[in-house]
Amino acid sequence: MQEETEIKLEEKLSELLAVSDKSYNEVANEIGVSSSSIAQYRKGQSRPSLENLVALADVFDVTLDFLVFGEKDDHTDQDYDPVIRHVDKSLGNLQDRTAERTSLLARVGRTISESLDEQINEFLETERTEYKAGIVSNRETICLEEHSIETKLVLRNFEYNLANGDSETPGQFFTEVSSNINQDREYKYLLVDDADEDWESCIGDFTDLLSDHSGSEMTVARNCKFRITDAPLIVGYGIYNLDRAAFEEDNEILYEFLNERNCMNPDGSVGYVAPPMIEGRADSLMDSSYLTTANRVFDELWEDARKL
Predict the structure, then answer these.
(1) Is CATH 1.10.260.40 what the domain over 9-80 is classified as, yes or no?
(2) pLDDT tens per residue, range 230-288
(3) Of the residues 12, 144, 186, 256, which has the maximum number of CB atoms within 10 A of its CB?
(4) What is the DSSP letter of 6?
(5) Is-contact 13 67, C-beta < 8 A?
(6) Domain parsing of the chain, residue ranges
(7) Would you say domain 135-307 falls under CATH 3.90.1170?
């Protein structure tokens, strides 16, 4: 007796629905039945008519043999395994999305590159122009002071420490001074006697403000020294002994420039001359030879200056 062929309509229909991009409603609309009928076909609760069976095979692009019995027809090009077709389609979609993403990344990359080129060119046209002249802005000077282990300053005014002479208003460099003091980094302030400043009052206000921020008068007294010189100095200047490694890591461009222009001594010291007016917004760097002389002169004046 011939063995009865097993009908696998429910199983194959479930597989096709699972891997298809079509919803129940879409399949139902294409063959002209309700979505509940599709659900009943899948569960074996009812069987489609021959007409609807052929329509289902057309919708999923499979043969009737495959849909009903799960058998492939080796003589037709249409009888592909639906899972394979789904994988092929998914792979194609993935390739399309990858191509779109690659294109998007390329456009974004070009935009970023163009923006960086503009900023670099702007930097080279402005900052580097000043650098070539040995000029650094207050921003760069503050950066230098931030990395200074020992700071020597010759001052004719205290505007950069107490803004507008206000005892409660810190100047531009106050934050760096306070931070360095708390790290036990040393400051030496050499104050010019003939300057139009009440040094005792300024220094009293300044150290009080530092103490309030550091929380320790002893820390300020230990790391901040003040002396007055009667030397006829008409401009101020500063010398920073830098933590060279940290400065190089944080400020590679400025570090390389200082070395290229011979503005940093082997011990990591850097010097600048302050602008001869309060409104000045840039400092002139010292070359190595000038720096060596300025450092020697400072030490000599410091020894002869009177303590405040």
Answers:
(1) yes
(2) 998 888 899 999 999 999 998 888 888 888 889 999 999 999 998 776 655 678 899 99
(3) 144
(4) P
(5) yes
(6) 9-80, 88-132, 135-307
(7) no
